[in-house]
Amino acid sequence: MYDYIRGQVVRVTPEYIVVDQNGVGWQILTPNPYSFKVSDEQVLIYTHLHVREDIQQLLGFKNMEQRELFRKLILVSGIGPKGALAILASGVPAQVIGAIEREDEGFLTQFPGVGKKTARQMILDLKGKLHMLLEESDVSIQLLDGDGLFASQQNHDLEEAMLALAALGYSERELSKIKPKLEEEHGDTETYMKKALQYLLKQ
After folding, report:
1. From CA 135, how far away is CA 154, in angstroms rounded?
2. Class of domain 64-136 (CATH, top level)
3. pTM for the whole thing?
4. What is the pLDDT of residues 81-93, one digit of tens each?
């Protein structure tokens, strides 16, 4: 129904962003809200409308590869929109595609809500069907390196990152393990999110 929205990001929260488009505020769930910044500049966000009997949710992605992988993931039994967003939160579709192609269940089960059964189902349903996304994607299969650090508002930004990760489904126990490592880092909220996801996927 909606392919994309172009507008100004006017609010960023741990779970969603708000995009103003000609005076209408669109609340959009996204894998990593802090990859967006409040700005007067226009941004293009690729969208997916998820409809259930009790809810309608608009989800947004920074590129088409993320969105198409999201659409593939929610077709897998056991993965809903929230789980798919958590899988995509690192912002690197190639990592997930690579794990599916390698049948790397260990990597896949590190995401919230993905157990061995669901990881195996992801591999059975999607292996060999994601090559086009991998070829079109211009991102590296390596973990994000967290370039572009900022020193201001360190504690505030770290807490925002923790809230965003909790909203994705990571447990307090998992977050408490990595928080001491993050406290040694310096950066903005997006940087903390990237670093945290690196640590979580290595546990």
Report:
1. 37
2. mainly alpha
3. 0.71
4. 999 999 998 656 7
Give Cα 78 distance to the centre of its chain. 18
Whether 134 has a pLDDT exceeding 70, the answer reads no
- What one-character-per-residue DSSP string does 142-157 give? SPP---S---TTHHHH
pLDDT in tens, 74-118: 999 999 999 999 999 865 678 888 889 999 999 999 898 899 999
Distance CA 30, CA 38 (A): 15
> What's 129's DSSP letter?
S
Distance, in Å, from the CA atom of 69 to the CA atom of 84, rounded to the nearest integer, reads: 9
Q: What is the pLDDT of residues 168-200, one digit of tens each?
A: 889 888 999 999 898 888 888 888 898 998 888
- Please list the alpha-helical segments (H only) found in 23-171: 64-73, 81-88, 93-102, 105-108, 116-126, 131-136, 154-168
The predicted pLDDT at position 149 comes to 29
> C-alpha angle with apex 76: 48 to 134, nearest 5 degrees?
70
CATH superfamily of the domain spanning 4-61: Nucleic acid-binding proteins (2.40.50.140)
* Cβ 46 vs Cβ 4: under 8 Å: yes
> Residue 128 carries which DSSP code?
T
Angle between helices 64-73 and 93-102 (to 10 degrees): 40
Domain definitions of the chain by residue range: 4-61, 64-136, 154-202
